[in-house]
Amino acid sequence: MSAFEGRYPSRYQAITIHNVAKMPEWQRLDPELREAVEVTSRVLPFRTNVYVVQELIDWDRVPEDPMFQLTFPQPGMLDKEDFEAMRDLIRRGASREEMLAKANEIRFKLNPHPAGQMTHNVPELDGHRLWGMQHKYRETVLFFPAQGQTCHAYCTYCFRWAQFVGIQELKFESKQVDMLVEYLRRHKFVTDVLFTGGDPMIMKAKALRQYIEPLLQPGLEHVQNIRIGTKALSYWPQRFVTDDDADEVLRIYEEVVKAGKHLAVMAHFTHPREMSTEIVREAIRRVRDTGAEIRMQAPIVHPINDNPQTWATMWREGVKLGMIPYYMFIERDTGPKNYFEVPLVKAQEIFREAFMQVSGLARTVRGPSMSAWPGKVRVLGTAEIRGEKVIVLDFLQGRNPHWAGRPFFAKYNPEATWLNHLEPAFGQEKFFFEEEEPIVWWEVEKDPFAQEEAAAVPA
Questions:
Q1: Which residues pair with 5 in a beta bridge?
Q2: Does 63 score more than 90 pLDDT?
Q3: DSSP conformational letter for 53
Q4: Is residue 60 packed enough to be buried (19+ CB in 10 Å), middle (13-18) or exposed (0-12)?
Q5: Residue 143's beta-bridge partner residues?
Q6: Is the CB of residue 368 less than 8 Å from the CB of residue 343?
Q7: What share of the chain is helix, strand, coil (3-state, %, to 5)?
Q8: What is the pTM for the complete model shown?
Q9: How many CB atoms lie within 10 A of CB 124?
Q10: Burial class, 126, CB count within 10 angstroms (exposed 0-12 / middle 13-18 / buried 19+)
Q11: In this structure, how many other beta carbons lie within 10 angstroms of the beta carbon of residue 87?
Q12: In Å, how far from its chain's centre is CA 378?
């Protein structure tokens, strides 16, 4: 028997709008706030669980509590007109069909798949679109396992909210791991596979093995890194400690490492409180004992973590627990972005002030970074050049590898919250990446840059 059984919830129990009224904590909310949660959750996904509710949310601080803001839909997440329209339907007892039609109308206005996820990222194989995969950057293929397209709890700001609202044409998922393997065999320049979702760690160990084991077979030696994007450490650390197949999950991790692959758990930590319980610390220890590395990443979002002290604390605590600070993202231009977004200039100031407070071990973190259409664009800061105040940016990753590390300049705009709000500085009409053709990686089977990169390596 685990030392944690009886101290933390051991049976996973999802909490949604359909059963949230059974929670004693629900009755502590103001009736107006309860109605707002219900209205917003008719449009945007709402799912939390007993661990989050009992261990992470400080109910004496609700509604300002960051973990409450992080997991319970807030009234400001919909614009006033849409919120009132949905509220009025609920109040007059409209039919399910009428409410669903209105919800879908609102959803399609919220840019459900930003940055070319459907139009430019879905690869092809022998003329067939692979709807459970994305291939935006040369080295990395994303795979969306069908059984992993939900989460232990949903973040209110989630940029993949469209996966969870029941509209099939907006959903990425696949069970065709054989197609993934064939695609990788034909694209030898791919070194990384990222299992994403949803959350792959919602899957039982048996299902997880069916997706990971095929990547360990001969012929895929070029796939050096397997990544798993997950929020399970934050929202259900029991997955690695007390779940009935927790040990089997960790055995799979060990097998990946023993096969000579690097296993990176891309852990989504948004606030230091998610690292505060004994069971999450035990989960982190157990994962690291398999030989896997844990890298921390999250977006900067108002009002949850948009201050330097929160980030500095989170990075310091993460390093102390053996994790690697990786990314601070900018909230994507999708869903309820107006509620959560932070201006680019302010985000960079927060990043810099947090960065100054930590030691070199935490300065592995990069950001603030926008996962925009051309790539991951980092905001480096502001400067005055030839009498013009500008925002300095560069690419951490690009659709064209030659864009990586290349600085560029935008006119100073303290209100801008996304790349498309910026204009080129110094009188230029376009940014350099707008004038160059990106590479469609599934259309090539040999890396067009391989020879020149090899030639650059000293003999």
A1: 8
A2: yes
A3: I
A4: exposed
A5: 133, 195
A6: no
A7: 40, 20, 40
A8: 0.94
A9: 14
A10: exposed
A11: 18
A12: 16
**Look-up: residue for tokens 């330097």?**
308
Query: 375-385 and 366-371: which strand pairing?
Result: antiparallel
Which residue ranges make up each domain of the chain? 14-107, 124-373
Nearest to 383 by CA among 342, 432, 425: 425
**pLDDT above 70 covers what percent of the chain?**
95
Note if the bond before 66 is cis, omega within 30 degrees: no
Side chain identity at residue 449, one-letter code: F
Confidence at residue 458, expressed as pLDDT on a 0 to 100 scale: 63
Q: Residue 228 region, left (φ>0) first, then alpha (ψ -120 to 50), else beta? A: beta
Q: Where are the beta strands (DSSP E) in 206-273?
A: 225-230, 262-268
Structure-token pair, residue 158: 């989630």
| Residues 123, 142 contacting (CB under 8 angstroms) | no
Q: To 10 degrees, the CA torsion angle through 400, 405, 411, 415?
A: 90
d(CA 339, CA 303): 9
Any idea of the CA torsion for 278, 279, 282, 284, to the nearest 10 degrees?
-110
pLDDT digits (tens, 9 = 90+) for 368-388: 999 999 999 999 999 999 999
User: What is the enclosing helix (H) or strand (E) of 107?
Assistant: helix 96-107
CB 396 within 8 A of CB 378: yes
Q: Which residue reads 């396992």 in tokens?
A: 145
Fold exhibited by the domain 124-373: TIM Barrel (3.20.20)
Query: In the structure, what pLDDT confidence band is assigned to residue 449 with cuts at 50, 70 and 90?
Result: confident
Cα 246 from Cα 5, distance rounded (Å):
13
Q: Which helix H or strand E contains 451, and what residues bound it?
A: helix 450-456
Report, as an integer, the average pLDDT of 45-58.
96
CA–CA separation, 391 vs 414, rounded Å? 9
What the block records as the tokens of 41 is 């959750």
The amino acid at residue 109 is K
